[in-house]
């Protein structure tokens, strides 16, 4: 870490840059999901109690307070439940404009958020709630970077 | 449970940048007047409850420790709380619980933020989300609320004009409030013409990045008489929702745009306060709404209208100062949002309204007030109801 004096509107301040490494555990469900994407699969969780199918997968159902089982989820199509088109970037964000969509894939009980293909010339990206989307797994990137919703034409 | 009163309230003038003070010095600008109003000696404060956003937002590890602990926490309990945007509301609930339980006679509650210090606030906020599933898709505070606004437009038929009307109403409040950061009016046309940040949210609909602090002194009955006009807590509740936004979209038990858990918290707080018809019985509301769509959602959830009918409240002017039920007459979080303090500022504003000392944004005859807070990806919600009289 470095600290150096700078002027901020007539006041002396210390500017600091952090260079810290973190290694975030993905967890049991997260690691299964990430490894699944590597082999072209979407790993979901099914609650042993209520049988709900949960995406993203997690190891415990918060409604039944019981364990889930992880499995390869076959469905790749679903209904768009919400979206936005982001025009203002932040450090580390995907390049703008980019779209974020939440869709409930057929057979799932929750909506999975992922990047979505947009028409950049339209304010709403040419997207509409209630329309059908498919979830593609791209060839490059890691984890969620590889997932992309596309409107079903 | 013992009854709880607020006998001191202080807030800073909120600003886009305060390079002249540290976080601790900023806190003192709120603490000194709050303790002064309470009529207490400093050593009569039994505990301090402090909150600010994530350390990464300040860029200073345990920013509060160097200054506030020696001053206030020496030989006394000190607690730090962080529930994102709901931090201020959670601070209040923790402090009030310490008093209500009889564990403390007087508690100083302090919330603060210096959001000017990081180079990129939204990049910091992105790190609040899950690093595998949520950070890579570009979630931040604005984009998270944009997902909500789009769905409100689809499900409830709310329009860009409704959001712009709420914005213009709140900015008029900011003009009247000497503590607000944004004190210039904007018109509906100006809001609609401003740059899109994340569809459908426009630049003029975004809360500002703020430096500011707020402090309250909470006491039991035996110390309430030290201050001339104690404000009484009538009911409070806090509810938390599921982690993932996608668990709350189109779900029968928890719907993102219904703020299901805010609704539950309000129901509980009203039950404690004996309020059956909030729209008729509440005189003024300070709602945690950094964006206009959040205010409309909250109005539904706290029972000011039916689900999906907040557009009627906007269209009829009910929420304006001088309307049937003024919401955020101070301008609310859209005119100043020092994140860790914002929920407390809502309560401090209720205190001023009930004392009749709110000045140009005073609601005539206000006798009952509600304050809310919201944090996380709309996960943490608090509600508190206040009155002039003890319950």
Describe this structure in words.
The complex is a heterodimer of chains A (153) and B (391). Chain A is mainly beta and 153 residues long. Helices cover 8% and strands 43% of the residues of chain A. The longest helix of chain A is centred in the N-terminal third of the chain and has 12 residues. With 391 residues, chain B is an alpha/beta fold. Chain B is built from 14 helices and eleven strands. In chain B, the strands form two sheets. A nine-stranded mixed sheet of chain B has the order 3-2-4-7-1-8-11-10-9. Chain B has a two-stranded antiparallel ribbon with strand order 5-6. In chain B, strand 5 and strand 6 form a beta hairpin. In chain B, helix 7 crosses helix 12. The radius of gyration of chain B is 19 Å and the shape is globular. Classes of the chains: A mainly beta (153), B alpha/beta (391). At the A-B interface, strand 2, helix 1, strand 7, strand 8 and strand 9 of A face helix 5, helix 6 and strand 5 of B.
Secondary structure layout:
The complex is a heterodimer of chains A (153) and B (391).
Chain A: E1 2-8, E2 11-17, H1 27-38, E3 42-47, E4 53-54, E5 60-61, E6 66-73, E7 77-86, E8 98-105, E9 112-116, E10 132-137, E11 147-151
Parallel strand pairs in A: 9-11
Antiparallel strand pairs in A: 1-2, 3-4, 3-6, 5-6, 7-8, 7-10, 8-9, 10-11
Chain B: E1 5-11, H1 23-38, E2 47-51, H2 55-58, H3 65-73, E3 78-81, H4 87-100, E4 106-114, H5 121-126, H6 141-156, H7 160-176, H8 188-193, E5 196-198, E6 201-202, E7 211-219, H9 221-224, E8 231-240, H10 260-273, H11 278-281, E9 284-286, H12 292-301, H13 310-315, H14 339-355, E10 368-375, E11 380-387
Parallel strand pairs in B: 2-3, 2-4, 9-10
Antiparallel strand pairs in B: 1-7, 1-8, 4-7, 5-6, 8-11, 10-11
- Helix and strand pattern of chain B: EHEHHEHEHHHHEEEHEHHEHHHEE
Query: Mind telling me the CATH superfamily name of one domain in chain B?
Result: Thiolase/Chalcone synthase
Mean pLDDT of chain B: 95
Q: What are the secondary-structure elements of chain A, in order, as H or E?
A: EEHEEEEEEEEE
Number of strands of chain B: 11
* CATH architectural arrangement of the largest domain in chain A: Beta Barrel
Q: What's the count of strands of chain A?
A: 11
Write down the Rg of chain A: 20 Å
Query: What's the number of helices of chain A?
Result: 1
């Amino acid at each position: 870490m470095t600290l150096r004096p700078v002027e901020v509107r007539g006041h002396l301040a210390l500017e600091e840059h952090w260079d810290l490494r973190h290694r975030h555990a993905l967890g049991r469900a997260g690691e299964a999901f990430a490894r699944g994407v590597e082999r072209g699969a979407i790993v979901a969780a099914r609650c042993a109690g209520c049988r709900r199918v949960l995406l993203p997968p997690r190891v415990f159902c918060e409604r039944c307070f019981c364990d889930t089982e992880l499995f390869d989820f076959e469905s790749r199509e679903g209904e768009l439940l919400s979206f936005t088109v982001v025009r203002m970037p932040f450090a580390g964000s995907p390049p703008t404009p980019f779209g974020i969509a939440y869709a409930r894939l057929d057979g799932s009980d929750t909506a999975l958020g992922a990047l979505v293909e947009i028409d950049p010339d339209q304010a709403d990206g040419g997207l509409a709630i209630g329309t059908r989307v498919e979830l593609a797994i791209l060839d490059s990137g890691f984890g969620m970077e590889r997932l992309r919703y596309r409107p079903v034409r | 449970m013992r009854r709880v009163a607020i006998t001191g309230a202080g807030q800073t003038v909120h600003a886009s940048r305060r390079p002249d003070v540290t976080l601790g010095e900023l806190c003192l600008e709120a603490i000194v007047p709050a303790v002064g109003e309470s009529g207490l000696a400093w050593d009569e404060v039994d505990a301090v409850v402090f909150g600010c956003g994530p350390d990464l937002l300040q860029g200073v590890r345990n920013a509060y420790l160097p200054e506030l602990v020696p001053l206030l926490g020496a030989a006394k309990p000190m607690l730090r709380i962080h529930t994102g945007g709901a931090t201020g509301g959670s601070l209040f609930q923790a402090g009030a619980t310490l008093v209500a339980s009889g564990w403390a006679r007087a508690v100083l509650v302090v919330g603060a933020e210096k959001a000017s210090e990081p180079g990129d606030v939204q990049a910091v906020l992105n790190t609040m989300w899950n690093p595998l599933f949520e950070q890579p898709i570009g979630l931040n505070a604005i984009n998270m609320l944009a997902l909500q606004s789009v769905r409100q437009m689809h499900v409830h038929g709310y329009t860009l004009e409704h959001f712009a009307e709420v914005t213009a109403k709140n900015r008029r409040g900011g003009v009247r409030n000497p503590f607000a950061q944004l004190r210039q009016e904007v018109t509906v046309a100006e809001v609609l013409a401003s740059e899109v940040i994340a569809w459908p949210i426009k630049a003029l609909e975004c809360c500002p990045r703020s430096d500011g602090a707020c402090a309250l002194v909470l006491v039991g009955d035996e110390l309430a008489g030290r201050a001339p006009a104690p404000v009484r807590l009538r009911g409070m509740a806090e509810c938390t929702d599921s982690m993932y936004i996608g668990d709350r979209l189109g779900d029968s038990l928890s719907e993102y745009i219904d703020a299901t858990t805010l609704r539950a918290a309000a129901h509980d707080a009203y039950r404690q306060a004996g309020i059956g018809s909030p729209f008729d019985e509440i005189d003024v509301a300070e709602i945690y709404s950094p964006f206009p769509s959040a205010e409309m959602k909250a109005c539904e959830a706290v029972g000011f209208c039916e689900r999906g009918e907040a557009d009627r409240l906007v269209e009829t002017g009910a929420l304006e100062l001088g309307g049937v039920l003024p919401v955020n007459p101070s301008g609310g979080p859209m005119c100043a949002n020092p994140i860790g303090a914002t929920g407390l500022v809502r309560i401090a504003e209720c205190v001023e309204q009930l004392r009749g000392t709110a000045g140009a944004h005073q609601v005539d005859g206000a006798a009952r007030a509600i304050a809310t807070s919201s944090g996380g990806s709309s996960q943490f919600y608090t509600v508190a109801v206040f009155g002039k009289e003890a319950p």
